[in-house]
């Protein structure tokens, strides 16, 4: 497995990481034994970066990682570079989702994450969603304080605008920004990929295979209708979903002609968008995980990249990447 630097001065990690939202039932039923099998397969494939969050489950993803690490004995602290997140919570009175970026909340949630993971520190701690009512400079000072306390190696923000990144980085170097980025979601190319490269910030790309649209077996309508997130997502509602599956056929054929899977080719394309781009695919299948890892070994020349762009030109997807409700939280910047 090739390696990449997590930020300008962070650890060297595998060129792709693993997104551990799949350790919950978000994309289908799973359990701890399945999660442990994935982590074992990740180690076999050379994956050294695991991305999780306190709200995945909630707590189930971190707990599964922690119980796996607990079985590894003295090796447990050397196997993975771990990233987790905080900042999303629920109003105790209404149950509505709120974004809490206060110093007290972030540190308390981090302490809970460390306990579930069974570690003293994590390499990367994200603010999962920004609360615009609190200046990002103030939040960044909070995060820098957690570095000084030895609880985190560095920090990042999820789904923020390039202008917000610049403001935060002026206070303290930001290790990573996490954003959805793939051949199906090219939004980061409108400023975020450029700004992260300029500042030495890693761009950690979640959903790199387009929530199945960039694989050889996209979710059919009946499967999408079973999953709470996808059934209300515009790209997975009819007639958009059928149109998206049809639009991806040229890409799937191209991958087959190149002797690889669509998922591996999608991962390879992302890795060729910049040395600071780190995809974090998530899956409940060791077979699919191996396909993702094959993408890290593919070298694409100019002709191959042109063929990919011809198969899936910018703007090919039908429907927005989020519903109105799902857009609550991410910063729009174009």
Describe the fold and architecture.
- This protein is of the alpha/beta class.
- The chain is built from 13 helices and twelve strands.
- The strands form three sheets. The protein has an eight-stranded parallel beta sheet with strand order 3-4-5-8-9-10-11-12. A two-stranded antiparallel sheet has the order 1-2.
- Strand 8, helix 4 and strand 9 form a beta-alpha-beta unit.
- The relative contact order is 0.14.
- The model has no long low-confidence stretch (mean pLDDT 96).
Number of separate domains: 1
Q: Gyration radius, to the nearest Å?
A: 19 Å
Mean pLDDT: 96
- SSE class: alpha/beta
Q: What is the CATH C-level name?
A: Alpha Beta
In short:
With 334 residues, the protein is of the alpha/beta class.
Features:
334 residues; alpha/beta; TIM Barrel; eight-stranded parallel sheet; two-stranded antiparallel ribbon; 37% helix; 13% strand; globular
Note the topology:
Elements: E1 3-5, E2 12-14, E3 18-19, H1 32-45, E4 49-51, H2 60-70, E5 81-86, E6 88-90, E7 97-99, H3 103-117, E8 124-127, H4 136-148, E9 155-158, H5 162-169, E10 176-180, H6 192-199, E11 202-206, H7 221-224, H8 228-231, H9 240-247, H10 249-257, H11 262-271, E12 277-279, H12 286-296, H13 302-311
Parallel strand pairs: 3-4, 4-5, 5-8, 8-9, 9-10, 10-11, 11-12
Antiparallel strand pairs: 1-2, 6-7
Helix pairs in contact: 1-2, 1-12, 2-3, 4-5, 5-6, 11-12
């Amino acid at each position: 497995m090739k390696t990449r630097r997590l930020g300008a001065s962070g650890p060297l990690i595998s060129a792709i990481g693993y997104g551990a939202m799949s350790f919950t039932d978000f994309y289908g039923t799973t359990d701890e034994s399945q999660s442990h099998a994935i982590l074992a397969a990740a180690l076999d494939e050379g994956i050294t970066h695991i991305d999780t969050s306190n709200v995945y489950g909630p707590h189930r993803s971190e707990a599964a990682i922690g119980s796996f690490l607990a079985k590894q004995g003295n090796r447990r602290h050397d196997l993975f570079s771990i990233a987790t997140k905080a900042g999303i919570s629920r109003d105790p009175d209404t149950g509505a989702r709120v974004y809490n970026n206060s110093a007290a909340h972030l540190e308390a949630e981090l302490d809970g994450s460390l306990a579930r993971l069974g570690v003293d520190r994590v390499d990367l701690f994200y603010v999962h969603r920004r609360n615009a009512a609190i200046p990002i400079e103030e939040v960044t000072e909070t995060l820098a304080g957690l570095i000084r306390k030895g609880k985190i190696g560095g920090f990042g923000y999820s789904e923020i605008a390039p202008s917000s990144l610049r403001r935060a980085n002026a206070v303290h170097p930001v290790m990573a920004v996490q954003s959805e980025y793939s051949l199906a979601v090219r939004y980061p190319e409108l400023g975020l990929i450029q700004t992260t490269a300029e500042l030495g910030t890693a761009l950690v790309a979640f959903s790199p295979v387009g929530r199945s649209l960039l694989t050889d077996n996209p979710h059919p309508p009946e499967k999408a209708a079973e999953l709470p997130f996808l059934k209300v997502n515009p790209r997975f509602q009819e007639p958009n979903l059928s149109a998206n599956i049809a639009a991806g056929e040229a890409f799937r054929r191209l991958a087959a002609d190149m002797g690889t899977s669509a998922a591996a080719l999608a991962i390879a394309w992302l890795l060729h968008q910049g040395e600071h781009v780190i995809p974090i695919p998530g899956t409940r299948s060791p077979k699919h995980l191996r396909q993702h890892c094959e993408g890290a070994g593919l070298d694409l020349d100019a002709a191959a990249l042109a063929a990919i762009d011809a198969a899936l030109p910018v703007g090919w997807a039908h429907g927005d990447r989020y519903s109105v409700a799902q857009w609550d939280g991410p910063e729009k910047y174009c």
